[in-house]
Design a protein that fits this description.
The protein has about 260 residues and is of the alpha/beta class. It has one domain: NAD(P)-binding Rossmann-like Domain (Rossmann fold), CATH 3.40.50. Helices cover about 45% and strands about 15% of the residues. The chain is built from 7 helices and 7 strands, in the order βαβαβαβαβαβααβ. It has a 7-stranded parallel β-sheet, with helices on both faces. Strand 4, helix 4 and strand 5 form a beta-alpha-beta unit. Helix 1 runs parallel beside helix 2 and helix 1 packs across helix 7. The radius of gyration is 18 Å and the shape is globular. About 45% of the residues are buried. The model has no long low-confidence stretch (mean pLDDT about 95).
Length: about 260
């Protein structure tokens, strides 16, 4: 049995996904870039959530091609195969600027991590699965975790919105290319979610949610997205490749 690689699993939505997969009895490869302690904390939580859960921690900068290749090789060396990939890792811009004043260096940094990284990591994993000398024992699945920001604009963080919109198209492209090969790709699109990334704007979103922005009337939590990813990896959506699945409490519903 191979592992499911979850990128950016040290905190937030990635941790919620890793925990749900561990509870389902999956072997989880927990990826992180800079926060080693958080990644090991995720591993401990996974082990506690599911007695005897197999979870290991792997470091890599997914914006770097050499690191991506090393990550894939290390996970395969540890578990024999990668059975699934969850492209969750992402960053917010270091500074919220109006798009008229946006900094090109910050824009490129966000694109490298949020768009180029998962795009080419998926390419690496898919290539390995398609090799003739790597027979598949089961259906492989890939999830791209994007954001409601793929379609809802925030003019003070345009780089983030553009990166998530591009990633949504990347998910559709890989879904179309790989479905005939028995590799199923999905996009999961969270809304306003309680994570470290949203900690600085809690008051703002508390007010907006109280005013009815989210039909369900609450914040999202990492486990909301985790349960959807778990269902995908359990094979419950195998006739729905390319689907966009919202975990946003109805935020995406157009309303008057």
């Amino acid at each position: 049995m191979g592992a499911i690689l979850v990128t950016g699993a040290g905190r937030g939505i990635g941790r919620g996904i890793a925990l749900e997969l561990a509870r389902a009895g999956k072997v989880v490869a927990i990826h992180y870039n800079g926060n080693r302690e958080a990644a090991h904390a995720t591993a401990k939580e996974c082990e506690s959530a599911a007695d005897g859960a197999a979870c290991s921690v792997f470091q890599a900068d997914i914006s770097n091609a050499d690191d991506r290749a090393r990550l894939v090789n290390e996970v395969v060396a540890a578990y024999g195969a990668i059975d699934g990939l969850v492209n969750n890792a992402g960053i917010a811009p270091r500074r919220r600027d109006d798009i008229i004043a946006a900094d090109e260096e910050i824009f490129n940094e966000v694109m490298r991590v949020n768009l180029s990284g998962p795009y080419f990591l998926t390419q690496l994993v898919a290539r390995r699965w398609l090799e003739r000398d790597a027979p598949r024992q089961q259906t492989q699945r890939i999830v791209f975790v994007t954001s409601i920001s793929a379609t809802m604009v925030s003019t003070s963080r345009g780089e983030y919105c553009v990166s998530k919109a591009g990633l949504a198209m990347g998910a559709a492209l890989f879904a179309a290319r790989l479905a005939p090969e028995g590799i199923f790709v999905y996009e999961v699109r969270p809304g306003i979610t309680k994570t470290d990334m949203t900690a600085g704007v809690t008051d703002k979103y508390d007010r907006l949610i109280a005013d009815g922005l989210v039909p369900q009337g609450r914040w999202g939590f990492p486990e909301d997205t985790g349960r959807v990813v778990r269902s995908i990896m359990d094979g419950h959506l195998d006739f729905s490749p390319g689907s966009v699945i919202y975990t946003d409490g109805g935020l995406h519903i157009p309303r008057l």
